[in-house]
Design goal:
single chain, alpha+beta, Beta-Lactamase, Helix Hairpins, 3 domains, 12 strands, 46% helix, binds magnesium ion, two-component regulatory system, phosphoprotein, kinase, BphY/WalK/GraS-like, transferase
Length: 343
């Protein structure tokens, strides 16, 4: 049976596609679906395809002719500056070509993130490694010339840099473990109050050194959360350390927990310099720091908050950072209550 598509059927067909689709004949757009009009402009039908899809390789393929079967072309430059597309083009017969635009922006962004991550991780390790090599070379080549005190100072630097590399590697391992477990939601009923006590106890020395009081406000009768004990302790450790590290010395840090809509709401509040809005959404990126040299000098790897974010996601919880420059920062973590703990 010979089946020819008339205009009505063609229109129904491309309107049924979820991705942006146009039909091109000659060099004009002869038909488009709603997604394409949304993306490329309402009035694209009848317009020269060179104006609608300004991508040289794609245009060339559409206009040159000789298309015998479906082809795919990667394209960018339309529909938004950061968008990447896979254009699937297919001849429909009598010179008409169907163009479907598959959104590849997310895949491209994920790929870019992976590339950046490897570059950043290498850089984070290369810097202390260079220091380590420099100092050990000096120690080896000038053994007889350096006095005991200088040698001791150099060795202390070597040790500190090696420790920094160890921290980076440990944090990276921790991050990849958490990511590997991403799809197994923790179910153990964990007493958050007890974990807060443990975290506060281990941050006590740092708090004393900075003259900061650590205040706890736990709502009485708080139900247990569905959690991985070790990972929640990691969250608490990082957030309390951040609050102390970036808080103003001498000002208190407050940790509180209360029940809200079947979730336990944990807050860590500091009175520090705060974080400017443009940085806040980027803080959970790996190695992102507002002031890299400052964080480094305080022993930070810049991985803490990305670990926190991954842990909270694994727990089906929520992380939000609220901050006002000059006043301080509040980090909110919402964690689901353990099953069967609410009456
Ligand atoms: N409470 C806070 N107040 C102000 N700035 C903060 C606060 N918490 C985090 N930051 C900023 O966010 C950055 C990232 O924090 P994150 O915990 O990921 O890394 P870090 O503390 O530098 O290192 P790490 O946690 O790996 O030891 C910090 O370098 C700091 O600039
Ligand atoms: Mg940190």
């Amino acid at each position: 049976m010979i089946f020819t598509l008339n205009r009505d059927k063609s229109r129904k067909l491309i309107e049924g596609l979820t991705e942006a689709a146009i039909i091109v004949r000659g060099a004009s757009v002869v038909m488009s679906n709603a997604a394409a009009r949304n993306l490329l402009g309402i009035g694209i039908e009848g317009v020269d395809v060179r104006q609608v899809l300004p991508h040289p390789a794609l245009i060339e393929r559409l206009v040159r002719g000789g298309l015998t079967g479906p082809e795919e072309i990667e394209a960018a430059g339309f529909g938004g500056s950061r968008r990447h597309w896979l254009a699937r083009i297919a001849p429909l017969g009598d010179g008409a070509i169907l163009v479907r635009l598959i959104d590849r922006s997310e895949a491209r962004a994920a790929e870019q993130m992976r590339v950046d991550f490897v570059a950043n991780a290498s850089h984070e390790l290369r810097t202390p490694l260079a220091t380590l090599i420099g100092y050990t070379e000096t120690l080896r080549e000038h053994t007889g010339e350096l006095d005991g005190e200088t040698q001791g100072r150099f060795l202390a630097i070597v040790h500190e840099e090696a420790r920094r590399m160890q921290r980076v590697v440990e944090d990276l391992i921790s991050l990849s473990r958490i990511e590997a477990e991403k799809f197994t939601t923790p179910t153990e009923a964990v007493d958050l109050e007890q974990l807060i006590e443990v975290a506060v106890e281990s941050a006590k020395r740092m708090a004393d050194e900075r003259g900061s009081a650590l205040l706890c406000k736990i709502e009485p009768g708080l139900p247990p959360v569905a959690a991985d004990r070790v990972q929640i302790l990691q969250v608490l450790d990082n957030l309390i350390t951040n609050a102390l590290r970036y808080g103003e010395p001498g000002t208190p840090v407050e940790v509180s927990a209360s029940l809200e809509d079947e979730m336990v709401h944990l807050r860590i509040v500091d009175q520090g310099e705060g974080i400017a809005p443009e940085h806040i959404q980027r803080l959970t990126e790996r190695f992102y720091r507002v002031d890299t040299s400052r964080s480094r000098s305080l022993g930070g790897t810049g991985l803490g908050l990305s670990i926190v974010k991954h842990i909270v996601e694994r727990h089906r919880g929520r992380l939000t950072i609220e901050s006002e420059v000059g006043k301080g920062t509040t980090v909110h973590v919402l964690l689901p209550v353990a099953a069967g703990s609410l009456s």
